[in-house]
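ugh ok fine here u go
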Amino acid sequence: MLYSKPDFIDHPTKSDRLDRSFLPPFKIKLETVIFIVILIASILSRFAMLEPRVMSHDETSHVYFSWFFYKGNGYAHDPVTHGPLQFHLVALSYFLFGDSDTSARIPAALFSIATVGFIWFFRRYLGRAGALVAALMFTISPYMLYYGRYVRNEAFVALFGVISIWAILRYLETGQHRFLYWLTAVMVLHFATKETSFIYAAQALLFLGLYFVYRITQKQWQKPNFRAFFLLALILALVFLSAGLSLRSLADQTLPTGEAQYPQLAALPQFISLALMTLGGIFLVAAIVFILSGYTLTLVRQERSFDLVMLLGTLVLPQLSAFLINFIGWSVPVNASEVNALTPTDIIHMALVLTPVLITSIGIGLWWNIRQWLINAGIWYSIFIVFYTSLFSNGAGLFTGLVGSLGYWLEQQAVNRGDQPFYYYALVQIPFYEYLPALGCLLALLYFIFRPFRSASSYGDQDQADTESHSLPADDQEVTTVTGWQKPPTLALLGFWVFTSLFAYSIAGEKMPWLTVHIALPMILVSGWFFGKIIETFDWSLIRHHKGWLTVGLFTILLPALFSALNSLLGGNPPFAGSSLDQLADTAEFLIALVAALASGTGLFYSLRKWLPSQVMRVFILIFGLLFAVLTARTAFAASFINYDRPTEFLVYAHSGPGDKIALDQIEQISRRLTGGLDIAVAYDSETSYPYWWYLRNFTNVHFYGSAPTRDLRDVPLILVGDLNYDKLAPVVAQSYYQFDYIRIWWPIEDYDDLTWERIINAITDPQMRQAIFRMWLYRDYSQYFQLTNRSTELQNWSPSGKMRLYIRKDIVAQLWDYGTGVYTPEAIADPYEGKQTTLNADNIIGSQGSDPGQFQNPRDIAVAPDGSLYVADTMNHRIQHISLDGSVLQVWGTYADLSRGEAPGGTFYEPWGVAVGPDGSVYVTDTWNHRVQRFTAEGEFIAMWGFFGQGETPFALWGPRDIAIDSQGQIFITDTGNKRVVVFDADGNYVTQFGSLGFEPGQFDEPVGLAVDDDGLVYIADTWNQRIQIMAPDGSGGYIPFLNWEVVAWYGESLDNKPYLTVDSSGNLYVSDPEGFRILHFTRTGAFINYFGDYGASSSAFNLPTGLSVDGAAGLWIVDSANHRIMHFSLPADEQDIP
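structure:
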């Protein structure tokens, strides 16, 4: 039948003032003008200053692969970077506007603006004033604004979210099929955008299911007794299904170490959770039988919530296949490479799950409504296929979209990405940013609790004191042809969405700041409704006729005066604390604020004495809400336009530092001045790949060296390096580059983690801490808090952060003359050893990575036995391996034991770093982190051990002993690395002598590691951090004195891996490893450099962290290639076998 809007919409209300003409000649309504102003504000705030902010870590992958797509190189959906929609839209933006930071952010800005604009259609549900308030709140929301200018998926999801809620309400209200099409379209776009779609779909289905149950239980059943049975069966189904799913989910959760987070649950047989879910399924079937028998299918089909459940459920069901595949224990491909690597067995497994799920989905959908399901399925799969196959160019996208998206998301929940506490949103993000919608929701809740309402809907919420309703202007009151109008559960849906969003994201394994967007969205809608209601029910005539503006003015004085007085009283500098000038100033500040508060309060009491209490409450709420709105706008502005690259804001997990763009500007300037374009050679590492694989995209000569820099980089004039690779790059750049240091990335502090009641009470009761936290909240000023927690207040010392360096070669600077270094510097030689490289190929290579006999895990040292066999310190396997020259294993001994945590009997090790063979064939091992030396027979039988952890208090107090050498008399020389000395024992472990201390003078050491003794009794020491080799000679009385030392141009940095070893042969050749230079240096024993060999790699002539060395009796050299997990033998050229 024909009907117009329900009577309550036509009812005249105070909101009719919004129909007033703002510009009479043009007949533009005030409501329209206000909304246009809000929309303009959203446009300006989304598009202003899009370029300056550095691409953050989380944006870089999105912008780079979109650019890759735009360049015609295709795009393959990878769940790691979420759905494909954003990549298509950003690539389109590049096509239209060119590739830049600004154009990358245009799609997010447009969608964020569209979200604000779509709120216009919520006037029927939020009220006309409520819609204006909600639109304003979306505009000034810190999270909506920040992520409306950020290349992540949240801006897109926000629009899809509000449209989804609107479409659900519209269909429940009218039953018109076009709103099903709206819902289908935005839900599949959401699924093509981000995995939060699963949470949104679950929220919608759960609410609609509950709403369906509520409606049918309020109606007359043909068999009334079946209603109780239905409810009981449904409750039992939910209990058993929830228990089974929760048990399985908790049992699968792991700690970062890989261990089960709940070992007792993980130990339970899987059939228990399966049995619980089976029982739940049985009870669910029983509930269906009861409803069909007692209420009838015909009546069920008349419920619009049933239509929505059927539609959403059947369309989403195939997306949930990963749950079943994962539950069974079969592999779930989570990216394109894993799809391409699927075996026939994997495909069969997937088909065994996907096929019945798809058939079930289609069958239920066609049973529900053939025509409507086919139309909506057509919409759904058309959009899904187009985007997930990247415009039909990536067939694997169908599998990654159907199965991989949820599979990857489930993995992320299990690993607890972000590792945030459950209160992360409720106590950190919302109080710091979204306090205005939080206030609105709290007040709305109180409004419902303390006032008698006749309806849970926003429609017709009237009471005795105020007759009000949300109205629409006449030109918006469409005439529709349907069988009947139904009042939709607007506030029930919004309230449910608020609660479930906060709950779901708080318990989810992955807790990231951007997910706050999805919590704030329904909160803003509820708050808009509430504040709109207050606006519409306030008697505005009081402002005009009862000194209302004076009242408002007094309120605006009272609130800040009270705030100032309380801040003085409760802050770190209370009044009446003393008579110094500062203390008197604090007292005066308090008294002035107190007087202002008392005076304005008295004036308010006088001016409001004739107002109704309800109107007083309304004006108070409006002014307080306005104050919070101003603070919220200020917070949003500071986050988006002032602090956007600073870690003082919590709404980004990993901020890129401003140094990224400063360094980029330097690189571009140098390139343009020297090449006229972007043609200069630039290199970057694995740490700086974020964001530089985006920022260097248009440079024509870019080199990526990962985490393994080689000497070839010396041909590159500009090198970027992250702090984790500083030490590795140092030997490459040496003295030939200028160094510029920047902060590359930094993270907000996480002091809120591990909150205890003691910490909370201290924060509330300690005036200094209370004031420090307040200053963090209001000003993002951390100085007082850092002083209280004994941290540096300087931003450049912020922790946690990641640093980076830009190295500019000095000859390049010399060409520029004025590039910030002060003086002209002639070309420096990076490495005086350059030009003296020789190429040697190993003639015997033994080992591979692993823990089986004959395999190694980061071995460190090697010793040659008198019979030519080898003893290898298999360091990370915590053992010694005895190996023949053909690679066969003769003996293996040793297991892991940490003496600091318990027993560590002889024959157990904690990272043995050194091994040597005595004249009698005994094998000596430095058990480095058990701080001791062990002696074994040639077959590995334990004989003795000595040493304990200490700082050199006695000769046996060792600290991380590294290398070991034995002279012709059988004396044992140990580099006691941590104590900066060498200690000498006899063959039985009795103390003989020691020499060395911390320092740079001859005979002093800083991190001594490698050790060797020649036939003359001279002791050679790799004095690592002093970057020199020292020779100590016997003094004739049992001690040792400095004999000779020379500088080594190597061993830059102080990493744990950069520990050099050395060995000397009978012909006077000294071979020294340069671990992070990936080479072996060859000297005479008087310090003359001869040559070097080796480079980075895994070939027979290359190394990856060469460490221990040992000469054999056949003019050969054995080398431990530690990071390649192997040992290598090199036959030395004849001209090197007799060095004078």
